[in-house]
């Protein structure tokens, strides 16, 4: 099996996981700076998804670091399948959460100022942007592992 | 090349494309029954995406019907790549549009009744549900063609 960049256990996969962890943590941070998010179901959904993504990415970050350390790439079919499936579900959830947050923020901005003061709304927007970046990296991880899967 | 169900040119692919066309047309129909959607950017986004998806799915429906008719499955690498890439982009756009519509509708329902009378809001909800079904089928098409791609 040739080593495709981004496949589980490689240093590029480590970089992708690190990016996912950083962007999803940033998204959660900007959303939770204020407790106002409880009022909107889209924002609660984003917080829930980010909780899942951070734990998933951190776990795989540790797996990647360990694989790089012992210089061995995991090749078990079932293991790669689980990782690919998890990445796929989480990337869809990330995109859904990011788009929901972005559209709700857009609606709140166009509505009355009392619903969404300027600094609060830009915080929600940054959160949605970070979620989109996390989705992009998560989707890349998923597609690379999915590409590898038929050859296993 | 073994014939995987759902691969371009097979009858199951025809069924998937037909489903996508039907669900996306239904979603567009329920959204455009009233001209109120112009007021919300999420709804305009849905209408734009549905326009793209309907034309894409109808074209591939014709390609599938022709392939079934002449009993030959297209196997050109570049052609399958274009189809897979288009399906992937459209499935992401569909999910984004569906989630944006669903979250905006949810927000409008929880807000004042004047923003969203009961029958209008349920129409938006049906539109979002149809978009999710279209996404599901589009995503299946994309994954099946992507699975096949490394073996070409």
From TrEMBL, chains A, B:
Domain (Casparian strip membrane protein): residue spans on this chain: 9-137
Record-level GO cellular component terms: membrane; plasma membrane
Source organism, top-level taxon: Eukaryota
Membrane topology: Multi-pass membrane protein
PANTHER family reported in the protein's UniProt record: CASP-LIKE PROTEIN 5B3, CASP-LIKE PROTEIN 5C1
Subunit structure, as described in the record: Homodimer and heterodimers.
Protein name (record): CASP-like protein
Gene for this chain: 25501653
């Amino acid at each position: 099996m040739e080593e495709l960049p981004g496949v589980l256990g490689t240093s590029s996969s480590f970089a992708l996981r690190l990016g996912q962890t950083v962007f999803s943590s940033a998204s959660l941070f900007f959303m939770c700076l204020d407790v106002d998010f409880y009022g909107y179901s889209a924002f609660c959904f984003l917080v829930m998804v980010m909780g899942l993504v951070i734990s998933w990415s951190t776990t795989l970050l540790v797996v990647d670091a360990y694989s790089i350390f012992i210089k061995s790439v995991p090749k078990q079919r079932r293991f790669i399948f689980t990782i690919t499936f998890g990445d796929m579900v989480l990337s869809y959830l990330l995109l859904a959460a990011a788009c929901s947050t972005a559209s709700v923020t857009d609606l709140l901005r166009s509505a009355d100022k009392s619903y969404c003061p300027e600094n609060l709304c830009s915080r929600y927007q940054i959160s949605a942007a970070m979620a989109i970046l996390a989705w992009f990296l998560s989707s890349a991880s998923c597609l690379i592992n999915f590409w590898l899967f038929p050859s296993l």
